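name: query_chain
kind: protein
chains: 1
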Amino acid sequence: MFIPTDDRLKIYKTLFNEGVMIAEKNTRSVHKETAVKNLFVLNAMKSLNSRGYVKQQFVWQHFHWTLNEEGISFLRSELHLPENVMPSTLKRSEEHTSEL
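structure:
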């Protein structure tokens, strides 16, 4: 399926920033976080899952994807990001760093 480049980049940016993504199994709706057709989100994430860049779970008619290390490096190259930029799921919170 052809996904417009702007929509694909929105999906990739949101996934990289958060480190996770959730989408309802409804191809006729609009994804709330990205404002992209849910059909495009489902197909983009299906592609990333088949290449082994995300871990997919399906619970209560919703897909949950978690980015893995290979996916992080792939999205860094796709989005032209430096090595020091990390998804928010891998960043340490200020509370935990001050306790150490």
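note: Strands lie at 20-24, 54-59, 62-67.
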